[in-house]
Each structure stands twice: as structure tokens, then as C-alpha cells.
């Protein structure tokens, strides 16, 4: 290992390309943990890279707009910069939105850290006619400025060279109005060891309690004087001063092409995409197209994997039979391991396709617009638009989605969002839909049927949310402010990273959770030894027969379906594996078996129940962790199961009355 070492912290606004630069510099050689000492954890990424004999230890700080220590992300960033004291801080800024990004830059300068400004996303600034003079910008800020593109190697070598120089902290602090500077000078005289950053914090938030009464009185008088002079709070005073300083910097270093026009490209697109009449229909069309593409492109790959597992099962069965292995060994290998795991892995291509398409929508900037579109709808139901952000994450996995509710402003809104997020259809439910929709519905409507399930989850969440807000969670929702990033063309590398990370988690589940669950089901279906595999005399058959009547009014009152529902509490992917294991058949034969026990209506009712009833064990434990209450956790589980039963009952019985049974 190199003897030379430089600790580099990456700081910047959300959506500025910070994590992309982190991946570029580290070559994806990094590990993920959590920030220490936090009751509520946020992911911490660290990585290493060696350049010219020097090891760079790179820390990706949480994305934040400021260092005001109001949010957990801001608190973590300030604490790290003040106490860990990295050798270099690289501030990544969005060149197309320089005014907003430079607010954090000024605070980093005030903090006194050794700073390099990495000017990213210049291609979007160029497209909007924005011309940035990096030399003038560097001179105005007093820090090195490097033009980069985080997605490739543009400016990478120059940035690394600046890092290796280990620039000193600038003494070129932003100069505010004479009134402000005079008060800062007065406080500096009586507190000579205190940094400019801390002096500003004292004027904004007040003096620490361990200061003497004399100093505390002086600071408080100064704060009141600022309020009288400027007619607003000290916090707003400094915000106005910083933006005024930024305006001067932009005047000196930024210009526009004469033919740049009025609205930029993102604003022109948003005239349609976020239109109050067109926005939601466009969203519905986009999501329908996503699911239709998943079915159309995924089918050939599913057939290929099905053939592989079918051949493997036949080969294993023949090999075991010829070797004289006992019947239970053959059943264990073919019915348990191969049929169970194979019935889940077969859906991997569709899951990868879904995540590729969702990654494209997210990286392009469209999903941020969806939150704004849903804000209008949710506010009419008494909900909060910001709640839809964790809900969108719930389309991937419920665990990080529930954890994402930490960004909610009030405890009431956070708890309500936690209760609604599990109604979103996570990717673990996708194999169930793919199996049953592929069996019972013609290709022309398969995408529409699956889309209806996702839409139903949103609709049920809104209705349940409305009922809860009218009863247990009364109160007004806070204002909703969300930055809409510019539209961007997603990079192939970024999309593939997002997609295959999720695919890897799915395969990990198949090995860590699904495989043991399959073995447990095979054992219960085989015991007591001597009974027919999976029959009503087996242990699992007796359990299924006991609880099956609960689901009879929903159209799937068979023991196998009841057991699948119970096993789905471990992980929703296990639902499909349960059918494969209990019936002891591969995917192709499983379709023929299910055709005899389900109808299209009862299959849809079953999918609705899987959609709405309580999520997997990991998600329920996350609810317990986030709420610190077993009462809320158990109550949420009961509520979701009741809602699932009622909605499935309405769909099935209503379908029967309409003649679809």
C-alpha cells in the first residue's frame, strides 16, 4: 500500500453527479456502511483509488443543499467536515444551476475547508447557452475550479492533479454588507479563537450555553440589532447576503449566448409532462408501456431459463434413479430444490428489464415529475405529495422505501407514509404476477393487467390514507417543495449499475431466503414419511386445509394457495416457489396445474391479495425499527391483511355477480 494518503470528501447538492464522480474515481471499488453514532442511519460510501503513488481515501457525503444542520444529511456533513477534517473537499456543482449550487459552496468556504470546485454537467449548461468563465469563477471564490463530466473522464486528470496538490483552505471569505462585517469583526475581537463559520452560526442560532453571560448578552443584542435593521430573522439575513454575493459572482463569471432563447429544454418539456390535465394521463401511458415491454421482451428469456431448469430436473431425476437413490432423495432434489428455486429464478429477466426501465425513468429526471404530479392528487385527499417519493421507492423494495420516510417534516406524516408505503407493489411480488398473468391472460392484455395491479396499489394507498387522515392522523399537511432535476439522457453504465444491483439482491434472496424456505416446504410436504407428497395427510396439507376456508370467499380456498400466502410472509418470491414445490412440477407443468385450480377471476383476486396484504418479514421489522413500536407494527399488519381481504372479496364476488366467475 502507498505510504502517501489523502482523505477526500465529496460534497454537493442532490442530483449534481456526486455519486457518479465517486464511482468514476474509485472504479466501483468501495464499501457501504452507515454513519456512526446516528439513531437513524444513512448510507455511507467509502472507496479507495491510487494515483501517482498516492492513495486517495474517498468519502461520499450525503447530498445536501446547505449546511444549516436542520436535516440529518446536513448534520452528518457538518460533523464530518468539522471533526474528521478531510485533506481535501471536492464540491461538485451543477453548471446549469450554478446559483443554487453555489450556496453550499459559500458555506464550505465559510467552514474553512480546503476546497476544490468541480464544475459538472457542463453539457447541459452549454445546451442552454450558459457560458462560464472558470478563471473568473476561481478568482471570485478563491478556490481551484475544474471543469469535469462525472460520467466520463472529461477533466478527471486535472481534478486528480488538484487533489494531489492538497490546496490550503482559502482566506477569501465572502464579504457581506458593512453592517454584517462590522458585527462579525466585533465578535471576533472578543472571541479571537472562534472561526468565522462559528461566529455566523452564533448570530443565526444564538450563543452556546457554556459561554459567559457577558458574551451571550453581546451576541443576543447583535442578533436583535440585525432583526431590527433588516426586518427579518438572522437566518434569512445571511441567506439573502449569500445569494446577493452569488449574484455578484455570476455577474462577473457567467454569460448567456445571445440566441439562447427563453425557457430551457426541461421547462419546455414540463409544460406538457407536469400539466395539471396531461401529467397524470402521460404517467399512466408511460407505466403501461413499461409493463407491456417487460412482458414482450422478457418472454423469450423466460422460455430459455425454463428449458434449462426442465432439462436439469430430468437429468437429475434420471441420474438419481439409475444410481439407485431413494425416492425421497429424488423428490428432494427435483421437487424441492430444482422446481422450487427454478420457479423463481425464471423471472429474473423480467425483473432486470423492469429495473432497467425504472432506472431510465429515474435517471432521465421523469420520476421527480411524477412526485409533483401526484402531489396535486394527494393533496385533494388530504395527503402530502412528498409521501409519494418513498412510495415510488416501494416499487423496488419496501425496506429502503420505509426508511426513506425519515425525510418527512412531521412525525404524523412520517407514520402515515410508513403505513401506506407497503401497499406499493414491490419487485418481490413481480414473479407472482408474471406467473399468473402469463397463464390466464392473452398477450395483448398482459401488460394492462399487471399495470392495473400497480395502479390498484396506489389507489388503495390513497383511499386508506384518506381514511386514516380523517380519523387517526388529523391535521394539515406541510408544504411540498421538490427540486426537479433537468432532463438528462441516462447513461448506459448508470442504468446497468442500478439494474444489476437490484438483480443481484434478487439472486441473493433466492439463495439466502428462498432456498431455505423451499427446503422447509418440501420437508413439511413430505412428512410424515409414507404419505403422498403434498397431500392433505402431510403436515403442510393439514395446515393448508385448516386455513383455506378463510380464502374461499376470495376465490382461492385451496390448501396450496393458503400455504403460499403464509410462506409469502417470509418473502413474496416464495409464493411462486411454494406452488412449484407443493405441486412438484417445473414452470411449464405448473401452468397446466394452476389452470385446473384457478380461473382468470380467482387468479386476479389472488394477485390482489398478494399485492395488499402485509409485506415480508424484513419490511415488517423495518416498520418496527422506524416506529420503535410493536403496537404500530402489529396494527399495520392487521390493517393491511384486512384491507387485502376486503378488496379481494369485492373484486371476486363482484366479478362473479357480473358473470366473470
Automatic annotation (TrEMBL):
Domain (FeoB-type G): residue spans on this chain: 5-169
Any GO MF annotation of the entry: GTP binding
InterPro entries documented for this protein: Fe2_transport_prot-B, Fe2_transport_prot_B_C, FeoB_Cyto, FeoB_GTPase, G_FEOB_dom, Gate_dom, P-loop_NTPase
Pfam families: FeoB_C, FeoB_Cyto, FeoB_N, Gate
Record membrane topology: Multi-pass membrane protein
CDD domains reported for this sequence: FeoB
Keyword annotations: Cell inner membrane, Cell membrane, GTP-binding, Ion transport, Iron, Iron transport, Magnesium, Membrane, Metal-binding, Nucleotide-binding, Transmembrane, Transmembrane helix, Transport
Membrane-traversing stretches: 277-299, 337-361, 381-403, 415-442, 448-468, 510-527, 539-556, 563-583, 603-623, 630-652
Binding positions for Mg(2+) per the UniProt entry: 23, 26-27
GO CC terms of this entry: plasma membrane
Domain of life where this protein originates: Archaea
Residues annotated for GTP binding in this entry: 12-19, 37-43, 60-63
Subcellular location field: Cell inner membrane
Record-given protein name: Ferrous iron transport protein B
The encoding gene: feoB_1
Amino acid at each position: 500500500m502507498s505510504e502517501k494518503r489523502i482523505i477526500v470528501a465529496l460534497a454537493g447538492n442532490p442530483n449534481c453527479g456526486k455519486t457518479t464522480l465517486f464511482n468514476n474515481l474509485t472504479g466501483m471499488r468501495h464499501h457501504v456502511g452507515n454513519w456512526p453514532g446516528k439513531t437513524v442511519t444513512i448510507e455511507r460510501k467509502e472507496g479507495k483509488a491510487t494515483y501517482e503513488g498516492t492513495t486517495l481515501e474517498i468519502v461520499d457525503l450525503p447530498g445536501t443543499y446547505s449546511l444549516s444542520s436542520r436535516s440529518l444529511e446536513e448534520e452528518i456533513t457538518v460533523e464530518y467536515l468539522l471533526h474528521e477534517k478531510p485533506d481535501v473537499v471536492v464540491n461538485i456543482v451543477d453548471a446549469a444551476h450554478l446559483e443554487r449550487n453555489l450556496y453550499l459552496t459559500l458555506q464550505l468556504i465559510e467552514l474553512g475547508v480546503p476546497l476544490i470546485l468541480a464544475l459538472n454537467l457542463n453539457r447541459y449548461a452549454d445546451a442552454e447557452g450558459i457560458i462560464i468563465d472558470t478563471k473568473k469563477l476561481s478568482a471570485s471564490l478563491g478556490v481551484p475550479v475544474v471543469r469535469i463530466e462525472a460520467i466520463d473522464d472529461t477533466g478527471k486528470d486535472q481534478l486528480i492533479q488538484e487533489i494531489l496538490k492538497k490546496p490550503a483552505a482559502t482566506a477569501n471569505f465572502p464579504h457581506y454588507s458593512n453592517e454584517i462585517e462590522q458585527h462579525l469583526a466585533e465578535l471576533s475581537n472578543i472571541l479571537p479563537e472562534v472561526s468565522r463559520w462559528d461566529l455566523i452560526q452564533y448570530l443565526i442560532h444564538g450563543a452556546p450555553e457554556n459561554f459567559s453571560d457577558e458574551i451571550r448578552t453581546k451576541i443576543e443584542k447583535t442578533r436583535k440589532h440585525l432583526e431590527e435593521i433588516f426586518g427579518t430573522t438572522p437566518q434569512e439575513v445571511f441567506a439573502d447576503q449569500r445569494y446577493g454575493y452569488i449574484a455578484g459572482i455570476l455577474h462577473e463569471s457567467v454569460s448567456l449566448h445571445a440566441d439562447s432563447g427563453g425557457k430551457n429544454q426541461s421547462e419546455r418539456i414540463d409544460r406538457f409532462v407536469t400539466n395539471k390535465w396531461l401529467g397524470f394521463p402521460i404517467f399512466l401511458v408511460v407505466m403501461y408501456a413499461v409493463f407491456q415491454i417487460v412482458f414482450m421482451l422478457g418472454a423469450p428469456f423466460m422460455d430459455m431459463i425454463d428449458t434449462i431448469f426442465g432439462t436439469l430436473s430430468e437429468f437429475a431425476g434420471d441420474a438419481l434413479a439409475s444410481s439407485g437413490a431413494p425416492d425421497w432423495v429424488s423428490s428432494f432434489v427435483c421437487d424441492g430444490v430444482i422446481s422450487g428455486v427454478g420457479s423463481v429464478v425464471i423471472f429474473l429477466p423480467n425483473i432486470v428489464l423492469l429495473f432497467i426501465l425504472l432506472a431510465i425513468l429515474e435517471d432521465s429526471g421523469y420520476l421527480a415529475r411524477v412526485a409533483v404530479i401526484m402531489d396535486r392528487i394527494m393533496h385533494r385527499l388530504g395527503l402530502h405529495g412528498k409521501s409519494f417519493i418513498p412510495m415510488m421507492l416501494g416499487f423496488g423494495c419496501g425496506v429502503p422505501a420505509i426508511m426513506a420516510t425519515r425525510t418527512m417534516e412531521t412525525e404524523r406524516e412520517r407514520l402515515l407514509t410508513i403505513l401506506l408505503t407497503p401497499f406499493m407493489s414491490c419487485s418481490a411480488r413481480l414473479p407472482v404476477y408474471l406467473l399468473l398473468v402469463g397463464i390466464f391472460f392473452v398477450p395483448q392484455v398482459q401488460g394492462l393487467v399487471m399495470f392495473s395491479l400497480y395502479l390498484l396499489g396506489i389507489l388503495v394507498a390513497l383511499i386508506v390514507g384518506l381514511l386514516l387522515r380523517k380519523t387517526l392522523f388529523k391535521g394539515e399537511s406541510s408544504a411540498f417543495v421538490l427540486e426537479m432535476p433537468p432532463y438528462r439522457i441516462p447513461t448506459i453504465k448508470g442504468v446497468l449499475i442500478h439494474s444489476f444491483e437490484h438483480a443481484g439482491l434478487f439472486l441473493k434472496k433466492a439463495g439466502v431466503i428462498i432456498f431455505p424456505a423451499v427446503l422447509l416446504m418440501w420437508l413439511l410436504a413430505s412428512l410424515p414419511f409414507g404419505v403422498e407428497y403434498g397431500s392433505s395427510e402431510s403436515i403442510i396439507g393439514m395446515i393448508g386445509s385448516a386455513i383455506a376456508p378463510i380464502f374461499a370467499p376470495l376465490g382461492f380456498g385451496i390448501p396450496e394457495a393458503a400455504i403460499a400466502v403464509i410462506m409469502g410472509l417470509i418473502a413474496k418470491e416464495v409464493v411462486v416457489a411454494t406452488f412449484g414445490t407443493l405441486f412438484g412440477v417445473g414452470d411449464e407443468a405448473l401452468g397446466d396445474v394452476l389452470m385446473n385450480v384457478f380461473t382468470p377471476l380467482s387468479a386476479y383476486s389472488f394477485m390482489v391479495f398478494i399485492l395488499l396484504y402485509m409485506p415480508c418479514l424484513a419490511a415488517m421489522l423495518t416498520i418496527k425499527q422506524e416506529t420503535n413500536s410493536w403496537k404500530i407494527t402489529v396494527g399495520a399488519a392487521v390493517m393491511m391483511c384486512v384491507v387485502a381481504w376486503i378488496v379481494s372479496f369485492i373484486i371476486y364476488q363482484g366479478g362473479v355477480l357480473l358473470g366473470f366467475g
